[in-house]
Amino acid sequence: MLNVGIIGATAYTSLELIKILLRHPKVKITYLGVRRTDRPMISDIFPTLKNLLDVSCEPIEHKEFPDNINLAFITLPPTISMQYVPLFTKRGIKVIDFSADYRFRDKSIYEKWYKAQHTDSAGIETAVYGLPELFREEIKKTNLVGNPGCYTTATILALAPLLTHGIVYPDDIIVDAKSGVSGRGREPREDTHYCECNENIEAYSVGGHRHSPEIEHILSIKTSQKVSIQFVPHLIPMNRGILCTIYAKPKQNLKETGFILSDSEVHRLYKEFYGKEPFIRLKEGNETPKTKDVIYSNFCDIATKVTENRIIILSAIDNLIKGASGQAVHNMNVMCGFDEKMGLL
Amino acid sequence: MLNVGIIGATAYTSLELIKILLRHPKVKITYLGVRRTDRPMISDIFPTLKNLLDVSCEPIEHKEFPDNINLAFITLPPTISMQYVPLFTKRGIKVIDFSADYRFRDKSIYEKWYKAQHTDSAGIETAVYGLPELFREEIKKTNLVGNPGCYTTATILALAPLLTHGIVYPDDIIVDAKSGVSGRGREPREDTHYCECNENIEAYSVGGHRHSPEIEHILSIKTSQKVSIQFVPHLIPMNRGILCTIYAKPKQNLKETGFILSDSEVHRLYKEFYGKEPFIRLKEGNETPKTKDVIYSNFCDIATKVTENRIIILSAIDNLIKGASGQAVHNMNVMCGFDEKMGLL
Amino acid sequence: MLNVGIIGATAYTSLELIKILLRHPKVKITYLGVRRTDRPMISDIFPTLKNLLDVSCEPIEHKEFPDNINLAFITLPPTISMQYVPLFTKRGIKVIDFSADYRFRDKSIYEKWYKAQHTDSAGIETAVYGLPELFREEIKKTNLVGNPGCYTTATILALAPLLTHGIVYPDDIIVDAKSGVSGRGREPREDTHYCECNENIEAYSVGGHRHSPEIEHILSIKTSQKVSIQFVPHLIPMNRGILCTIYAKPKQNLKETGFILSDSEVHRLYKEFYGKEPFIRLKEGNETPKTKDVIYSNFCDIATKVTENRIIILSAIDNLIKGASGQAVHNMNVMCGFDEKMGLL
Amino acid sequence: MLNVGIIGATAYTSLELIKILLRHPKVKITYLGVRRTDRPMISDIFPTLKNLLDVSCEPIEHKEFPDNINLAFITLPPTISMQYVPLFTKRGIKVIDFSADYRFRDKSIYEKWYKAQHTDSAGIETAVYGLPELFREEIKKTNLVGNPGCYTTATILALAPLLTHGIVYPDDIIVDAKSGVSGRGREPREDTHYCECNENIEAYSVGGHRHSPEIEHILSIKTSQKVSIQFVPHLIPMNRGILCTIYAKPKQNLKETGFILSDSEVHRLYKEFYGKEPFIRLKEGNETPKTKDVIYSNFCDIATKVTENRIIILSAIDNLIKGASGQAVHNMNVMCGFDEKMGLL
Questions:
Q1: Least buried of A287, B1, B194, C167, by fewest C-beta within 10 Å?
Q2: Under 8 Å between Cβ of B124 and B104
Q3: B23 to chain D, minimum CA–CA distance in Å?
Q4: Mutating which of D182, D191, D192, D202 best tests the A interface, going by the most A Cβ atoms within 10 A?
Q5: Which residues of B touch D301 (CB under 8 A)?
Q6: Which among D173, D196, D200 is the top mutation candidate for probing chain A, defined by the most A β-carbons within 10 Å of its own β-carbon?
Q7: Cα angle for residues B29, B33, B35 (degrees, 5° grid)
Q8: CB atoms < 10 A from the CB of B21, how many?
Q9: Residue D318's closest CA among D330, D304, D307?
Q10: Which chain C residue has the Cα nearest residue B179?
Q11: Are C294 and C156 in the same domain?
Q12: Residue C286 to residue B207, Cβ atoms within 8 A
């Protein structure tokens, strides 16, 4: 059995993580750490866990952790996370970090967008971006995974095949993203008040959202070209789920490269790219992804459509599962040599 | 034109009040007062008012108010409200107060439930409970109205005909009430977070809710008997609307009194009681009230059903309109001798 | 491995059943039968099952079924179901039926409420009501289970301890029930249209709902007294979940029986009654059940509160899981001697 | 008083139309016609109208209409509508048609997309597209208005200033549109079932939606250039409201034309274009339109944002009001010389 600890157990993603791990046959949760100290039982914080996991949460400010942890999930906010990750990696303990602190190979991008100095350069150097579909081999070998953001997962998976094969211009991509409210976190705020979100849709961070540089950074590295996107997120009145509608422009000289642009050829290309991936499902014909088909699952559903001037890619995930906790468990499975689907179907 | 001021302009009820008053042909809003001072324009607080009411909000802590107010709506929280009401009544200005501070003729009930000493005994003595269907004549003559709560409005209107005619036992009444989330106010809290309310229903204050003594107090006064109810409110994932499902027990000796208990007789009794009321609509046959039919309106829809052991009464209102701001305008119309429906259809 | 078939695979309950069975380590789905014949793959009917169960659905009108079925779940509507159940029971195949057709020991009650003649008297005689908490021993021995309705499950579990111990009057019970829309089935109708349900709450079947006689019948049998309830269901704008708010009247002579009516004593009584039940969770102190804590699970959360004139019992379940498919799998586990929790946590 | 008739009174848009007209001081509803004949009272079809408009609906299949109609609103589906419109126009009665039948000056576009032969060529020739902000003078003079679609209204208003001034390429425009479910109509269908829409977002008609040619047609006529757009609509779990997120590409030679591309300059351009329009509200600074601020109103809220490669325009309307019935009344006001805001604030 792998003994795992969760550091930062009060987030919505932590709850989903716990629920997945409780079903995982090779894992035992041996430690829960929280920044708040007033409510000791995890089943008091999340009554849905009653009878499933009735253990107490330990305060983490002392930064002392027990020995019986083989792998730590860090679900703390960015800039806080990097204060805790080295405490584990230095002791040789595997870490999967949910914040943005270990997603960038280039410290300067992180520091610009998160407005903080990065204090763990050593960590950044060994960290691997935890998108198994693109970085599986690296994940197998690392002890530190930077678990991807939710918008980024849906966007990168949707675009990787086209960009890898040079089908579309890397600097003329529009990502219109829609997310359920749990993506905003669990903290009560005016913009997460029920009456403000319900019966409403709005765009936010139109000027620039933190997930935008993450998407560009990872896609640029992976496809060896400078990728730049126009990213606009929207808040949707539903608890969970993300749908990305992506508009990419096919290159003009495609014929010369031998690629015949059509729905079936694009579909074939995605099938080749993701054919054996356990959590990617490609829609057939005119079917489009619906978030209701992926929520509470680790699947990413993708459809493509060729129109007169664009290739439209639609991708849907559960922001808390494939966009966070399910992907983290997938990474754990890869890191530990378990069956990749274990605990996730 | 009647010049009105609104003291406490940032509540959901204040927004509804403003929207109604803007349509009222005999009213001009001349003053908006707020406890917060950072956002001066009402259309910044409520962008939906842009182009409709672009005036600034004045801070109220100094407790000084201009002369050009003929009637003041006080939409402050209980215990705060009574600090402001006398400032107006003493100058002969009509007041309609939205808090609980002027709803009880008996100070001691108020003080027990609101855990505060009442500082305006004079006000209590002249205040009239602002339910026009039951206290129209008193409202006509008063300068100070205690505007009823939302749950109380729906419950009292549903029960008044049966209790007035002595058809049911006054001490064996169950009120199972369901409210949209706006009833909880506009303050962000864990229990109004979108993800906590959405896809959820729960009961709250099962031991005792503040509206319970208000209902009992008013019904007891109005029907000259000691009324006691069992009241359980529930939070429903919708913005607005209240549905009360009320179970009353018919008296055993009804036949002796000449009342033949049946659906049609009960319906007839309600028709007599509310026949000319402009905002009461009685459902016919097996039709039941739906909150969607009353939201954004000042109507209260009521249905009755006689079963083997009970008379079931269903009543639906918009908690922000008939349960607050619409009723306040109705009271204003009565107090000022306007057509009662003015601004409300 | 137990080979199971699902007869009537297109209902919402069927989807939930499939998802649970796919996680069950001792079960293999070997047959899916449907009344419609146009969409052969189950993952076309429910795209969420893509990659999880890509098998075809067989038409069932011929009433011929393969041999490789050890247990059949029948998820057909009432009156249709009883045409199929005997086809399996006669061959010695275990059956768990989701309709009302095998829930009544007394045929006449069924025939009155479902307005149809019952054609399988032999089935009724051997059928056991599939509420494991109350009928575990009988379920172990039977080959035919009538799986309870959703409202009935929540209500019976809430009332059984009090009625069994004679604490409350069996004929003065009010059940105010609230259900998500999936309880209405998957058929598009005016009353399940999104815009008609959303931002709305309404009561329905106020005169009498089919679940009412089922509740009375089972509670009467189990607690050996004539139980009669006042049952009013409501439609709530959410996908799934049921909350029952139940008002029971404590008997006047309790003291003589040695029972001291108090919150703690009632709570102790429930704890004794359900102490070892794997799927009953009793709320402590002033905590109340929330449907969000039980949806997607087989738990029933229950709270009790003693007030001046009533004992209030609140119970919450997922109507599709504990109110249908989860309970069916629980019954299967009991019938087959599996660990009761298998596949359900 | 203007006597108006509504032909096709059972749509969601008809209900909104009636509610607006009931508040309009110069209008009297004298006729309601329906295609169904079973429920004669409009307040039976829409119980929310009870006590507001208790008149009967007449069957329209006979195509005979009374004389006391000065203006007819036709709220029938496309291809049905053109069978009724001439019956009124021929008698000199003003008509505002809600369908697509009179929105295209070019019959062939209509016939291609609506797969039907147009039978009223004379009507098409005199019909004016009912977007007052762009066609006010023509509307003043016509007897027949083709009332715009909901998506088209939000999109055309958002793009007209930029296209009129030649700021952006007319053939590189992406419109990512999000609509509440009432946009799908009132007919129960699988895709409007509550449980299918709730907690879900999906794109539809990705290949090509009927509103796409309407937008291109009108913008091309109005701005004298061939406009072509990429339009993808999405279904959002809310009753009403549309948000369009539009990505337009600024021309490369703008500097030569003297236009300095910046947030403030684009904002100034919109202010000039719409400065006096009563129903256009331009957001300031970083504020973005929210559908909750426009629902139940005739406003269109618009924001613009200049990014590295695009101008992003956000526009929000109520699909049933500014996208249908409010706009129709606005058109009526213009046609009849009433104050344009009458009945609409």
A1: B1
A2: yes
A3: 7
A4: D202
A5: 47, 50
A6: D200
A7: 160
A8: 22
A9: D330
A10: C201
A11: yes
A12: yes
CB neighbourhood size of C29 (10 A): 20
Q: How many domains does chain C have?
A: 2
C167 and C294 inside one domain? yes
Confirm if D121 and D107 have CB atoms less than 8 A apart: yes
The pLDDT score that the predictor gives to residue C82 is 97
Contact A194 B12 (CB under 8 A): no
Identity of the amino acid at C339: D
Residue C287 to residue A51, Cβ atoms within 8 A:
no
Q: Is residue C341 part of a domain?
A: no
User: Is C150 among the catalytic positions?
Assistant: yes
Instruction: State whether C243 and B202 contact (CB < 8 Å).
Output: yes
- Put simply, the answer to whether A23 touches C23 (Cβ < 8 Å) is yes
Q: Do B48 and D297 touch (CB under 8 A)?
A: yes
* Domain that residue C210 falls in: 151-319
The partner residue sitting opposite D190, judged by closest CB among C12, C188, C239, is: C188
Nearest CA in chain B to A196: B194
Task: Tell me whether residues A296 and C297 touch, CB distance under 8 A.
Answer: no
Task: Write out chain D's pLDDT in tens, 345 residues.
Answer: 999 999 998 999 999 999 999 999 999 999 999 987 676 799 999 999 999 998 899 999 989 999 999 999 999 999 999 999 999 999 999 999 999 999 999 999 999 999 999 999 999 999 999 999 999 999 999 999 999 999 999 999 999 999 999 999 999 999 999 999 999 999 999 999 999 999 999 999 997 888 899 999 999 999 999 999 999 999 999 999 999 999 999 999 998 888 999 999 999 999 999 989 999 999 998 999 999 999 999 999 999 999 999 999 999 999 999 999 999 999 999 999 999 999 999
Collect all residues of chain C within an 8 Å Cβ-Cβ radius of residue A23. Answer: 23, 345
Q: How far is it, in rounded angstroms, from Cα A331 to Cα C151?
A: 41
| CA A278 centroid distance within chain | 16
Chain D CA closest to residue A287: D204
Residues comprising chain D, all counted: 345
Q: How far is D241 from chain B (nearest CA, A)?
A: 13
Report the residue of D182, D190, D201 to disrupt the A interface, i.e. the one with the largest count of A CBs within 10 Å. D201
Closest CA to A279 of A131, A71, A100: A131
C177: in domain = yes
Question: For residue B22, what are its two tokens?
Answer: 């803007």
The pLDDT value recorded for residue B220 is 98
Question: Quick check: A198 and B238 CB within 8 A?
Answer: yes
- Residue A180 · residue A242 · CB < 8 Å: yes
- State whether C108 and C158 are in the same domain: no
Q: Which residues of D are catalytic?
A: 150
pLDDT at A39: 60
Per-residue DSSP letter, C325? I
Instruction: Give the percent of chain B with pLDDT over 70.
Output: 99
Q: Tell me what pLDDT residue B38 has.
A: 72
Catalytic residue among A150, A197, A244, A300: A150
Same domain, D80 and D185: no
pLDDT at C39: 60
The set of catalytic residues of B is 150
pLDDT score at D39? 60
Output the pTM of the full model. 0.97
ipTM of the complex: 0.96
Q: Identify whether residues A158 and A303 lie together within a single domain.
A: yes
Q: Which helix (H) or strand (E) holds B107?
A: helix B107-114
Q: Are residues D293 and D329 in the same domain?
A: no
Which of D201, D307, D314 is the closest to A230 by Cβ? D307
The minimum CA-CA distance between D245 and chain C, rounded to whole Å, is 24
Q: Is B341 among the domain residues? A: no
Report the C-alpha dihedral over residues B307, B308, B311, B317, rounded to 10 degrees: -30
Task: Identify whether C342 is part of a domain.
Answer: no
Per-residue pLDDT tens over the stretch B231-289:
999 999 999 999 999 999 999 999 888 899 999 999 999 999 998 999 999 999 899 99
**Six-digit token pair at A149?**
């953001």
